[in-house]
Write a structure and sequence with these properties.
single chain, alpha/beta, Lyase 2-enoyl-coa Hydratase, Chain  A, domain 2, six-stranded mixed beta sheet, 11 helices, 2-enoyl-CoA Hydratase, Chain A, domain 1
Length: about 260
């Protein structure tokens, strides 16, 4: 896969692994990292050989948030390549056709927590440290706010956005920020097990399911009936749909799981 300045990307079978790679600053996101991530997710948009994307951070830290030094320079009048790009990145990750998994250890703060909130699944070390510290810096988590509120719910989002309080991975699981929190030494194996579950899933069906979720969410059921019926009919008649049903009847694994 393509090389980037601030992230490492590799493909392992039907899975892509993206590592945020600025460990000297705890993988804080600068404009270049955001642009690198945009380019990577744009390249993955039409790639059906990739069923899931795992995002992690180098050096035992997920992401300490935005690069404050770079933000300070922007505040003094430098060109702002960050704001609009970050908004596009969040939308790309949120609606990627692949299953996006956040592998969270160490810090996931500010924009790093926003990245967790746009992942489909998130698995964290119980010792991970998360939070929205923007108000303690004289800022607000403006760009990530819709995703944070959607993930946390309004009451909890109010508390964490307004206090800047930090919380650990176990609390994050209770709040619904992450799918599950596991002991630090078990995190890699837990994600490996999830990937094996996704190996059983049809690539086309996963992409269609992601699109379905966003199309029907918060919409009146009657208004989405035609769309829902069309998706089902198309998949039933597709090669993968036929293969999946035949594999079930014949009590064997479908081709994509082999």
């Amino acid at each position: 896969m393509q090389s980037y300045e601030t992230i490492l990307v590799r493909q392992d079978g039907p899975f892509a692994h993206i590592t945020l790679n600025r460990p000297e600053v705890k993988n804080a996101m600068n404009a270049q990292m955001v642009l690198d991530l945009i380019a990577c997710f744009e390249a993955l948009q039409e790639d059906r050989t990739v069923r899931a994307v795992v995002i992690s951070g180098a050096g035992g830290t997920f992401c300490a948030g935005g690069d404050i030094k770079e933000m300070a320079v922007i505040a003094q009048g430098a060109e702002d390549r960050f704001t609009g790009a970050l908004d596009r990145l969040l939308m790309l990750v949120n609606q990627a056709p692949q299953v996006v998994i956040a592998h969270v250890e160490g810090a996931a703060l500010g924009g790093g927590l926003g990245l967790v909130c746009v992942a489909d699944l998130a698995y964290a070390s119980t010792e991970a440290k998360m939070g929205l510290p923007e108000v303690r810096l004289g800022l607000v988590p403006a760009l990530i706010s819709p995703y944070v509120i959607q993930r946390l719910g309004l009451p909890r989002a109010r508390e964490l956005m307004l206090t800047g309080r930090r919380f650990n991975g176990a609390e994050a699981a209770r709040y619904g920020v992450v799918t599950e929190a596991v002991e630090p030494g078990e995190l890699a194996e837990r994600i490996k097990a999830v990937l094996e579950e996704l190996r059983q899933c049809s690539p086309a069906a996963l992409a269609a399911c992601k699109a379905l979720i966003f199309r029907v969410h918060d919409q009146p059921m009657a208004e989405t009936f035609d769309y829902r019926a069309d998706v089902l009919n198309q998949l039933r008649q597709s090669d993968e749909g036929i293969e999946g049903m035949m594999a079930f009847v014949q009590k064997r694994s479908p081709r994509w799981a082999e």
